[in-house]
Structures are given as structure tokens and as C-alpha cells.
Amino acid sequence: MMCKVLIFGCMAAAILMTAAFGAPLEKTKLSPDEKEKYLRAAINDLERLKNIDNNYLDFYTPNDKGECNQTTLACFLKELKVLEQDVEETDKQYVINIEKNLEDFQDPDFSNPTCKKCESNEKKKFDEFHQEMTSFLQSM
């Protein structure tokens, strides 16, 4: 009984401290400088993956730009999860860095029924996937 009181007391203190110190409840929008910094970091990490040996996996590779940027980004991030499971440990951190640098660019409320679903894109080998993703990030 005493343990429960202690645990709930600690939880209440943590919640109050979070509220008192103003932890943001919503994501803040990135400034143009921050966007550029994150994109540049993602492109640099993607460049480090350029020479990995992965000719046995196929990746859904979007090539939509413009009004489908959010869907394209979501697809690339989804395929990076596949890549993350397949690369060597030394390259895994680059994939994780790319995902983290791009997660703030996603808009969870985005919906456009005219944009292709990820699985309806053409499957390509890693070299072409890498090239398309690099081109997409540079266009952002």
C-alpha cells in the first residue's frame, strides 16, 4: 500500500513539474533556418549510405513532387524503416538520423486522395531509391 502511495506521489510531482516548466504540448513549427539545417543533415547522412551493398531488396520509390510532398515524404520514411532493419550496425545510425531529421516535416493532418499510396509506386533497387530520395530532399 505504501509503495502505491509513493509511486502515485512521484507521478504527480513529475506531472506538476512538467506543467510548471512549460513543456510544449504541441509541436512547434520549424523556422526556415531550422528546416534547411535538418534537410542538409538528412542529405549528408543519405550521402553516407550511397555505397551500401543492397541490391537484393526492392524499395517503393515515389517520384511525386508538388502537392503530394507529404505523401512522398511519408513513403520515403516508411521505406527507410525497411532499410534500417537490413543495414549493418555501422550504417544504421545514419538511417536513424535521417528519420529523426525529417520527422518534423511530416503533417499528420495531411490528406490528399489524389496522391499515390506508397505501395502503388514502382519498386526499385537501392541505388535508384537513394537517387530519388536525394533529389526529393534537395527539392524541399
TrEMBL record:
Pfam families: IL15 (PF02372). One of its GO terms (biological process) is positive regulation of cytokine production. GO terms for molecular function: cytokine activity; cytokine receptor binding; phosphorelay sensor kinase activity. Its main location: secreted. The keyword Signal applies. Residues 1-22 form the signal peptide. It is found in: Secreted. Keywords: Cytokine, Disulfide bond, Secreted, Signal. This is Interleukin. The gene is Il15. It comes from the Eukaryota.
